Structures are given as structure tokens and as C-alpha cells.
Amino acid sequence: MPTPPDLTEHPSAILLMGPTASGKTGLALELARRFPVEIISVDSALVYQGMDIGTAKPSADERAVCPHHLIDLITPLEVYSAAQFHADANRLIHAINARGHLPLLVGGTMLYYKALLEGLSDLPSADPALRAQLDEQAQQHGWPAMHARLAELDPDTAARLNPNDSQRIHRALEVCLLAGEPMSRLVARGKEAAANFRFLPLALVPAERRWLHERIAQRFELMLEQGFLDEVSALRQRYPALTTDLPSMRCVGYRQARDYQDGLCDYPAFVEKGIAATRQLAKRQLTGCAVCPSCRSMRSNRNWPPRCVRRWKPSGNTSHCRHHYRIAASIKPYAIMTKARRSGPCSWHSKL
Fold it and tell me: Would the annotation count 19 as a binding residue?
């Protein structure tokens, strides 16, 4: 039997990350039906108004289960940055905690999680003239000599870079010369500005890659049945200035839909490209989960919702399978529950 965690050190928020179509929304809603949580979207596609079907945005009924935040913030013509998410999420976590509720951050935009956990560094933008000057010096003296120059300006950054790592040495020198101070100092300052909360990062990882691919294909077909192409047509008609250069139209599925509507591919090729692009997104998200510090993985599979989650109640017995005990313990300060009891093994989570 696992040792129960120290309930006095409960986190300020739970982070529920994972690849698209892995069941994050379903798990979040299961928790919301049992505990006083408020969901904060960590999805760069859900901020856009009118982009509902292609982003698998939670329905009105689902959003009625508990408060949802950071959804439908801007039009598809506007831009929402990681810095804006960082500020909004910090503000919301404070407000939700003040209401005695638990923030549940749900989504798969790993850049947003990185900004929240590590902070943002205010590095200067690239300067074409300076870059050309550094390139000329590198051709004349070589990258080891440029590395030696970096060691004089920023010893900490130089110490972690290979003397032949031209790309990173180039950028570090550029930042030092533009900012007038070491890049390592700027990066450290950004980390100091990271969210001052106790987080419990959890990753919902499919037990089988084949199952995830099946889910992705089924979801894409369902979106088409729900009128995804009509949604794209309506967006283009409502926003004539909507181009593929905008972040909103770089969302998975939308670029492929535009290509089909513009006659650049036939319907079967559009469906194939849309599913393939979603699989690539899921692969990047899985990689992001794997490198996320202190993140615990939980397995999702065909038998959903998991037995132990179905048994969770705000005032009653609850499972304490290894990872699920951590969630229950995190929520306990916000909802009165009796002592957890062992309810048997659960195939939904990975073994530690």
C-alpha cells in the first residue's frame, strides 16, 4: 500500500496535460462533477471565437458543469501570446484559490505550461545587421574563437555550450551585445518571475499509440459530420482578412480545410492530411509531457472513465491508486472527504 501524501502541502493548482484526443476533457469533467474545481484552458486554439468544431471546444452543456476560463477570448484575426497566457493564468489561479476552489489547468499547449512553470525571459529580438556582423567575424576567426568571446561576456552560458555550437553561440552573443548584459542573467530573471504556486503536473498518456491514432481519426471524422468545413467557410466569409499566416489558421485542421476549399487537394487527401497533422501534434505533445519537470504520467485506455475516478465522491470513500491518490489528496483541502481506502489496482495509470 502506498504511503499517503502529506495533505498539508497541497498544490495551488493541478496541471492536466497530454496529447490531443487522450481524454483530458473527459477526466476534467469527471473531477468537476465531484469536486469544487474551476477549469482553466491551456489550449492556444480555444481562445478563438467561432472556432468551435475544429478545436473540439467544450460544448455549452460541458461548460455548465463548472466555470471554464480562457475560452473565446479573441477573434481569429487577433493574436494571443504565451506572455498573455502567463499573466491571465496567474491572475485566475489567485482568484480561484481565493474563492476556495481548486484551479484545474487542462490542455495540450506545452509552450503555455512551460511559460507557467519556468517563466518568460525578456530576450531582445534578432537584429539582422548585428547577425551579419557576427557571421562575418565567425568566418574570419572561427566559432571556437567566438565561443571564447562569449566566455568573456557570459561565462555561465559559454560553460554549457559546445565551442562548435554555432547557432547557440551566435544567439547568445547577439543577446549579450543587444541587451548589454549576460543572457544567463536575463534567463534567470525570467525564471524568478515564474508562477509562485505549488503545482501538481499530471500527464494523461495513452496506454497504446494505436488506440490514440484511432481516437484521432474518429474525432476528425466526427468533426466533419458536425460541419467543420461549413465552420471554416463561415469564418472566411465573416473575416475576409483571414489568411494562413495568422496563428488561428495554423491550428491543426484549419489549414488543411482551406487547402481543400481552395482546390489544392481532393477530399480524401484533405482528410488524410488533417489526421496526419493531428498525429504529429500529438507526438509533439507527448514529447513535451516527457520533458516536463516533476510530471507524473497516468495511462488512458478504452475503459474510460476509470473505475477509481467514478468512485470519487466529495464526501465518501475514494481510491488511492498511486497517481489518483495524489489527485484526491490535492483536492481534499477544498472538499471534505473521509479517509481513502484501497480499492484494488487500476489499469488506467502507469506504475511508478
Answer: yes
Tell me the domains of the chain and their CATH numbers.
13-120+193-308 (3.40.50.300), 128-189 (1.10.20.140)
Does 18 count as an annotated binding residue?
Answer: yes
Q: In this predicted model, what pLDDT tens digit does every residue of 170-184 receive, in sequence order?
A: 999 999 999 999 999
Indicate the Cα dihedral angle 186, 187, 188, 194, nearest 10°: 110
**CB–CB of 320/342 below 8 Å?**
yes
22 labelled as ligand-binding?
yes
Q: Tell me if 315 is assigned to a ligand binding site.
A: no
201 assigned ligand-binding residue: no
Go through 231-243 and write b for each residue having 16 or more CB atoms within 10 A of its CB, e for each that does not. Answer: bbeebbeebeebe
pLDDT band at 335 (very low <50, low <70, confident <90, very high): very low
Residue 297 assigned as binding residue: no
60 known member of a binding site: no
* 180 in a labelled binding site: no
Tell me the per-residue pLDDT of 1-42, one tens digit each, with 9 for 90 and over: 334 333 345 668 999 999 999 989 988 998 898 888 999 999
pTM (2 d.p.): 0.74
